[in-house]
Amino acid sequence: MFETKEFRDLLKDKIEIEYLRNDMSGFDNNIVDFLQTLASSNEPILTEREAKKSPALRKGLPDALQSIEDLVGDAARYARMDGRKILKVEDVQAALKLRLCKVWPFCK
């Protein structure tokens, strides 16, 4: 699911919406690559875990999109603290650490 062009497009679109919502002027396109690679590498483990849950409790695409919103919001705060209006991969990495692995599917 996370290796597809469709997911990549959703990921990029959501990042674009969120960076604008957070008053940023742009973002490093490597953020899309970073998050897609992270989600794809976690997918086998996460798929196995989710399959063990009841259908009502399984995480999916809406959870991934919510996680992007949360991560970009946190990353924007890091960029602003650094005096920037452009999001960098480092900002997203810091946001991931801040979230303590609570951003599915970007953490396992």
Notes on the structure:
This protein is mainly α. It has a single domain, classed as Histone, subunit A (Orthogonal Bundle). The chain has helices spanning 5-21, 30-51, 61-81, 89-98, and strands at 26-27, 86-87. It has a two-stranded parallel ribbon.
Strand order of the largest sheet: 1-2
Number of helices: 4
Query: Looking at the chains present, what oligomeric state does this protein adopt?
Result: single chain
Overall helicity: 55-70%
CATH topology: Histone, subunit A
- Mean pLDDT metric: 86
Separation of the first and last Cα atoms:
16 Å
Strand content: under 5%
Q: How many strands, what sense, and barrel or not for the largest sheet? A: 2 strands, parallel
Structure class: mainly alpha
From the coordinates shown, what is the CATH architecture? Orthogonal Bundle
CATH class: Mainly Alpha
Number-wise, the strands total 2
- Name the CATH superfamily classification: Histone, subunit A
Gyration radius from CA atoms, angstroms: 14 Å
| Number of domains as seen in the coordinates | 1
Low-confidence stretches: none
Topology as a string of helices (H) and strands (E): HEHHEH
- Using the alpha-carbon principal axes, give the shape: elongated
Key structural traits:
65% helix, 4 helices, 4% strand, Histone, subunit A, two-stranded parallel sheet, mainly alpha, elongated, 108 residues
Secondary-structure blueprint:
Blueprint: H1 5-21, E1 26-27, H2 30-51, H3 61-81, E2 86-87, H4 89-98
Parallel strand pairs: 1-2
